[in-house]
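Researcher: Quick test of sequence recovery. Tokens follow.
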């Protein structure tokens, strides 16, 4: 199984156009991946969620029909005076299947390793799935500290029987920059992560994120150990996202 995740962040997406463009690409290709070969997830805000979930439910196209909807964040609290936050219980009640946690844009805003761990616990308690993001910044990369940095992020999360459902390796310098990591860099991160998972007996697909586009998806997905991608900018238009999906083969 391959995975393709759209992270719409706080961008406005024309949902009618997104669906139309996506379906156009699906319909124009005979060998577009089936839903048992490619898992599609869209991480979006709650307002768009209600509209897109209706479209998904009523769609006649099986691949569109099987898109899962996730949040982009979840609170590490249960309930109470936490203005602006959304608990995993609310996500569950709304029908959302899981959430991204540990995205670098949230880590920059104060999410510590421990908060990310607690968010993971909340999702687990409510039987929701987690997309756990890790990744180094340029300074860490240039100082050859990538391995210890990634291991620290993994160790801080994978404790007390917690493990992610999907892991996204997203080097911070590649996010939104138009400069994807090169294959060698991605492969070295994959080997660090796989080694760690093997020792901990964790079975978890590994995705890459950071400036993924229709131009580089084939190269990225061919890196051994990469099971899919997390896509920001190039997921905002249904056509681009569907073209990327069409190039992912199991
Ligand atoms: P990008 O974003 O594809 O725009 O680089 C990826 C992400 O932040 O998840």
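Model:
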């Amino acid at each position: 199984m391959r995975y393709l995740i759209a992270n719409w962040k706080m961008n406005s997406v024309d949902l009618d156009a997104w669906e139309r463009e996506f379906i156009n690409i699906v319909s124009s290709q005979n060998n577009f991946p089936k839903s048992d070969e490619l898992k599609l997830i869209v991480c979006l805000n709650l307002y768009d969620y209600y509209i897109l979930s209706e479209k998904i439910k009523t769609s006649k196209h099986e691949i569109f029909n099987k898109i899962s909807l996730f949040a982009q964040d979840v609170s590490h609290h249960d309930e109470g005076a936490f203005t602006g936050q959304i608990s995993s219980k609310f996500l569950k009640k709304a029908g959302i299947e899981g959430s991204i946690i540990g995205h670098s844009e949230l880590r920059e805003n104060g999410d510590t390793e421990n908060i990310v761990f607690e968010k993971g616990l909340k999702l687990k308690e409510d039987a929701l799935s987690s997309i756990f993001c890790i990744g180094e910044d340029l300074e860490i990369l240039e100082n050859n500290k990538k391995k210890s940095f990634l291991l620290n992020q993994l160790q801080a999360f994978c404790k007390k029987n917690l493990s992610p459902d999907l892991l996204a390796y997203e080097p911070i310098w590649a996010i939104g920059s138009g400069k994807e990591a090169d294959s060698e860099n991605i492969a070295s991160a994959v080997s660090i992560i796989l080694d760690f998972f093997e020792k901990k007996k964790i079975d978890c697909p590994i995705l890459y994120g950071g400036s993924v586009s229709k131009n580089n998806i084939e190269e990225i997905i061919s890196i051994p150990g990469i099971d899919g991608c997390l896509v920001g900018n190039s997921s905002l238009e249904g056509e681009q996202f569907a073209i990327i999906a069409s190039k992912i083969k199991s």
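The CA atoms of residues 109 and 135 lie 15 Å apart.
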